[in-house]
Amino acid sequence: MTQGAGPLNGPVNLQDRADSVRTDRVGPLLGGKCTLHHLGVVVASISAVAEDFAMSMSARWDGQIIHDPLQQVRVAFFSPVDTRNPVFELVEPASEVSPVSNFLKKRVGLHHVCYEIDDLELGLREARSVGFVIVSGPTRAVAFGGRRIAWVISKSRLLMEFLERHQDQQADRLYSG
Predict the structure, then answer these.
(1) Which distant-in-sequence residues (6+ apart) come within 8 Å of 89 by Cβ?
(2) What CA–CA distance (Å, rounded) separates 158 from 173?
(3) pLDDT (tens digit per residue) in 109-136
């Protein structure tokens, strides 16, 4: 029996519900040994919303804003007070041609889900095999000390960032000062 948590009254049997969906397919996240790294939220100005955002999310911010000229954004990370909760990344465009500028013109809010992944190439192959689209292939990211990231979009239009768990030795030499 498959169970889920009911909103107010405990377990709910999901197996017998007509509106439930069951799938035995495994997506690219498990094969690449992924873990949730952070949730990315696009804002017009990090400094304008940081204090309220931190309070709203019960998170701490060290005051650091990182400029990534490769991604054409500025980012700031907010660590949860309770470590069972996710890290949040606020993202602001660094220019009008930033990849997040168009998103910001339409709305403010959740932009992407980032997964840290053991094998970036394997994760991308598996993403393609289930019909996901690679929006941007592997590139180095300043905010992560030169580790590579790639951007993938699912069939349901969820934007995901895959973050390489371990930096290769070439990147170590480039980003070690």
Answers:
(1) 38, 39, 40, 41, 75, 76, 77, 78, 114, 143
(2) 34
(3) 889 999 999 999 999 998 998 899 999 9
Kindly state the DSSP code that residue 128 receives in the 8-state scheme: H
Three-class HEC string of 48-96: HHHHHHHHHCCEEECCCCEEECCCCEEEEEEEECCCCCCEEEEEEECCC
Residue 48 has pLDDT above 50, yes or no: yes
All structural domains of the chain, each given as residue ranges with its CATH number in brackets, are 31-175 (3.10.180.10)
**Predicted model pTM:** 0.73
Burial of 27 (0-12, 13-18, 19+ CB in 10 A): middle
CB atoms < 10 A from the CB of 24, how many? 4
Name the DSSP class of 118. S
24 or 70, which is more confident?
70
- Are the C-beta atoms of 94 and 74 separated by less than 8 Å? yes
